[in-house]
Amino acid sequence: MRPSQTDNTLTTSADGPDTDVLFCALLRLGDNCLILAQQIGKWCGHAPDLEEDIALANVGLDLIGQTQMWLNYAGEVEGKGRSADDLAFFRDTREFRNALLVEQRDEDYGGTIMRQFLFDLWHFNLLQHLCQSSDSGIQEIAAKAVKEVAYHADRSTDLVIRLGDGSDESHRKMQDALDSIWFCVEELHSPDRMDEAATDLGMLPDLVKIGVDFRGQLSNILAKANLTEPSDVAMRHGGKSGLHGEGLGYLLAEMQSLQRIHPGAQW
Amino acid sequence: MYAQMVKSTGQPVKTLDEMDPLERAFQERINANEMIEPKDFMPDSYRQTLIRQISQHANSEIVGQLPEGNWITRAPTLERKAILLAKVQDEAGHGLYLYCAAETLGISREEMSQKLVDGKARYSSIFNYPTLTWADIGAVGWLVDGAAIINQVPLQRCSYGPYSRAMVRICKEESFHQRQGYAMLQTLCTGTDEQKAMVQDAVNRWWWPSIMMFGPPDQESVHSAQSEAWKIKLYSNDELRQKFVNQCVPQADHLGISLPDPDLKWNEETGNYDFGEINWDEFYSVLQGNGPCNNERLGARRKAWEDGRWFRDGLAAHQAKQDDAARKMPKVA
């Protein structure tokens, strides 16, 4: 599937197209953090070692904090009185704007680490540029988040190298994980109409340029890890315009269940 | 109490005159409230008892991640999700400090982890009960962490240095957890009727297992006298249990909920709350593996340990390659 050229399911704000573009950009940033944090949360107590339980939970905590900042700002920009919690717990699958990468399920810890690594490396590159966004709200959030994500990227890069260049089994697991998730990589750095509009307004950097840096760094790291970059993989796009895999619906059903059963309750 | 029925010598406590000179000197250091450090002399029975106690305590923290971790993906707000994830992360951290403390006594983390997944090492009975609703997360914080603190605060003054120092840090975090659990119940109790009913139901289920956490009554605690003489147990099970009940009754009143014990009443004469008979058959049955979640808890830890073996082995293999390469590097003068 090619990048979506339309995004008809977005809520349209009263303040015109620039606000719509900003709102959409913020949802994409926040939803990536939220969905990945949700995936990470389930590992605490089940990871291969205590240090992993602790470190992965740290990453999850950072991502929850970033979700709160992005989605609260999105709610303010939208101007309809929605909080970060409203946006997290009362939207359905088609309204989520996360990239396909972060919603991929991981039955194996190798998949968890590989998904995290690909996201962290791209996320770090993106946040560095977002620190120079024309929008001061984005700048402020990015300036805080980039410090946290620098650590995330360091940690997951280190693990990918050590496991890729570890035992035969760990090498095979990491190569399998890379092969099975590779179809999600291109979406991260392929701009659609909304991204281009945000870039034109100086809110977002040029994703194509970020993609060049990201893919260059990625190739170097995979080489150090003795991992082979997959070729001839049909790339898929669509998550960031609301066209997700079937798995996201289950993830949201679990995450949103209490709020949906007790609407309006305080927690 | 996260360590229950820890075996020590099973023998009557020796008097100073019955001890050989080394053991006597050791006991005199303890009597003088001196701290025992890893390289100091200690009787083998003291070492083995502490290994059982600290590893059981560590295992409880590690298995204790599971019932609360059960709700991380369903926490109802982003803030509650972060608080719960941070709390479960703290439990993993406690497991780590305690495994490190036990390692100073000459047992490896690998061995302790293996014993846990093989079902050969105990963990607290409390973690074999299910967390069925969101209010259980508050009840666990208030009651289970509350009971743990009452046991652990005195252990900050226990005779073994590494254990005592681990407990100082753990107690700070546990009291934070307990306050969070109670604050969460306060929010639910001032919410909708359904939320308040959820709290009452959770407390009805967690109350009795929580007071069982302190272990069997004193007259059945055959190993306590020796542990008390060694100052690795500072108060008796019944003393700590009474303190816990006395603390909880006014807190339950403040929440506007009842505790599920018709015999619970203030006793002017003793200055304590009297409480009903504890179902010790249930306690022993859970310890023997027949609680509602024993299989799930052990199964989850076994799966994490076994499924994660490739990960740990992979990191070790990489390190071995690095070490090998470093050895082959020509030395620069």
Summarize the structure.
The complex is a heterodimer of chains A (267) and B (333). With 267 residues, chain A is mainly alpha-helical.
Give short descriptive properties of this protein.
heterodimer, A: 267 residues, mainly alpha, Ferritin, globular, B: 333 residues, two-stranded antiparallel sheet
Q: Can you characterise this structure?
A:
The complex is a heterodimer of chains A (267) and B (333). Chain A is mainly alpha-helical and 267 residues long. Chain A has one domain (17-229, 237-250): Up-down Bundle (Ferritin), CATH 1.20.1260. Helices cover 65% and strands 0% of the residues of chain A. Chain A contains eleven helices and no strands. Chain A has helices at residues 17-41, 50-78, 84-89, 100-103, 109-130, 136-164, 168-181, 185-188, 193-200, 207-224, 247-261. In chain A, helix 1 (17-41) crosses helix 9 (193-200), helix 2 (50-78) packs antiparallel against helix 6 (136-164) and helix 5 (109-130) crosses helix 10 (207-224). Residues 1-13 of chain A have low confidence and may be disordered. Chain B is an all-alpha fold and 333 residues long. In chain B, strands 1-2 form a two-stranded antiparallel ribbon. At the A-B interface, helix 1, helix 2, helix 3, helix 6 and helix 7 of A face helix 3, helix 4, helix 12 and helix 13 of B.
